[in-house]
Q: What sequence folds into this?
């Protein structure tokens, strides 16, 4: 029999939850779960333990909390434990946790530590062997990351300075005073927008972060304030909505949200519903060859969660076009993680049934980097990568609009221009090009391979460092 402490990475949203159990004691805890709760139940069965505690380090903004979903599936054995520091309130059944509260799971003990800054209520959990006084680890939620800290600006400008001060105090008075040997288990990995430039590793140590984390090396508050606020990436549009939803308590299903199969006729009828969004999850080349008018091409990679969050309202009715029917659960799960559950159905038989029914399709032209280079006078390159990517080099004479901000800045673009849309490899380019096409742009081209292909072809680059 053994102690288990296992990280579980939800790719795309780059979120890390933790499963903790002592097989000899028969009990288990889950920290910061995602809504697709089967993985935690499977681990409980594997180790023959019962999930009794579900902890939330704070009210999440970047993904839909799975705490309510998981507890609903535990048949009364588990309760949700949430921070009531910082006057946090919740509209679902919960057990309050305050700084200093302790919990034991066989040979491991957890103690709550108030670590505000990312949010006012934020808790971290120190991990101890039950018979020892010094912690061997700490679950830091969104407060301390590998090479980074949690951003303090998600509650609006009026709260940012206050939370920045709290984050600085947490960094100096809590994390910097822990032993160098303490292992840090953050709840986000590289790719999350909850902190600037989060490192690639899944865990770290206090000693390593003291030595290498740029924010932990800053002693002056004014310098810290400038560094953390200036480095924050753009705030994804779904974050404020997710925070409210998670404080209220998301709807529970007891399984993956149901999505019905629709005939071509039924699919067409659902398309008439106001604000309906068609998400086509096929590869960009398949989408470019022919798709339903108005569809967005968000391919079914894990990052689908994030771009659906950026571009699609969580309440919008959603219709799905899939590469294959067997992909349904995977796609629905990815959308569920960022709060999208208003599914009207998916197209039975996929695009083949639409084509064979004689329904209209439109194309999204795919332009190779060689064609763009040879006919550069005809096209306006549109770069939809992040600011950091843009600064490291771009296609000459390109216009830059980050994909997440395209909706807000679309009015700055001339619909009569011929656009050649690119990103790093083509995935985001196809999302952006389909978004422009959906909004009435007739002369849009997507570039497969995008900037990687441009560099591989040894074509000229601007701003190259």
A:
């Amino acid at each position: 029999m053994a102690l288990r402490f296992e990280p579980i990475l939800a790719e795309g949203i780059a979120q890390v939850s933790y499963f903790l159990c002592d097989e000899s004691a028969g009990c288990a805890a889950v920290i910061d779960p995602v809504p697709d709760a089967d993985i935690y139940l499977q681990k409980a069965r594997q180790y023959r333990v019962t999930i009794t505690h579900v902890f939330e380090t704070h009210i999440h903004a970047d993904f839909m909390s799975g705490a309510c979903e998981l507890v609903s599936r535990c048949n009364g054995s588990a309760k949700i434990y949430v921070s009531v520091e910082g006057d946090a309130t919740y509209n679902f059944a919960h057990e309050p946790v305050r700084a200093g509260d302790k919990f034991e799971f066989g040979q491991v003990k957890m103690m709550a530590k108030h670590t505000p800054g990312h949010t006012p209520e934020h808790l971290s959990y120190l991990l101890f062997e039950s018979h020892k006084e010094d912690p061997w680890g700490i679950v830091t939620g969104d407060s301390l990351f590998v090479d980074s800290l949690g951003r303090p600006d998600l509650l609006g400008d009026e709260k940012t300075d206050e939370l920045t001060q709290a984050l600085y105090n947490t960094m100096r008075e809590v994390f910097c005073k822990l032993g160098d040997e303490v292992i840090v288990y953050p709840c986000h990995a590289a790719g999350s927008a909850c902190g600037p430039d989060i490192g690639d590793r899944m865990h770290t140590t206090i000693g390593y972060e003291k030595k290498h984390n740029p924010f932990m090396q800053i002693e002056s508050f004014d310098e810290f304030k400038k560094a953390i606020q200036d480095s924050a990436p753009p705030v994804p549009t779904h974050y404020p909505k997710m925070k409210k939803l998670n404080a209220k308590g998301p709807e529970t299903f007891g399984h993956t949200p149901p999505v019905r199969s629709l005939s071509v006729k039924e699919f067409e009828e659902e398309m008439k519903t106001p604000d309906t969004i068609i998400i086509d999850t096929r590869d960009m080349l398949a989408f470019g060859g022919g798709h339903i008018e108005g569809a967005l091409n968000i391919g079914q990679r894990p990052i689908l969660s994030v771009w659906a969050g950026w571009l699609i309202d969580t309440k919008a009715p959603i219709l799905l076009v899939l590469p294959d029917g067997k992909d349904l659960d995977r796609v629905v799960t990815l959308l569920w993680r960022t709060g999208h559950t208003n599914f009207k159905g998916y197209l039975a038989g996929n695009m083949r049934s639409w084509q064979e029914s004689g329904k209209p399709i439109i194309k999204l032209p795919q332009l190779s980097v060689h064609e763009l280079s040879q006919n550069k006078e005809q096209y306006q390159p549109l770069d939809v990568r992040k600011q950091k990517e843009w600064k490291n080099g771009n296609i000459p004479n390109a216009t830059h609009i980050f994909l997440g901000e395209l909706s807000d800045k679309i009015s700055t673009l001339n619909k009569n221009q011929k656009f050649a849309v690119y990103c790093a490899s083509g995935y985001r380019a196809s999302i952006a090009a389909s978004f422009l096409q959906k909004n009435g742009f007739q002369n849009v081209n997507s570039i497969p391979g995008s900037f990687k292909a441009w560099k591989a072809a040894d074509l000229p680059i601007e701003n190259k460092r």
Residues 372 and 379 are 7 Å apart (CA to CA). The longest helix spans residues 157-173. The chain has a mean pLDDT of 96. The two ends are 54 Å apart (CA to CA).
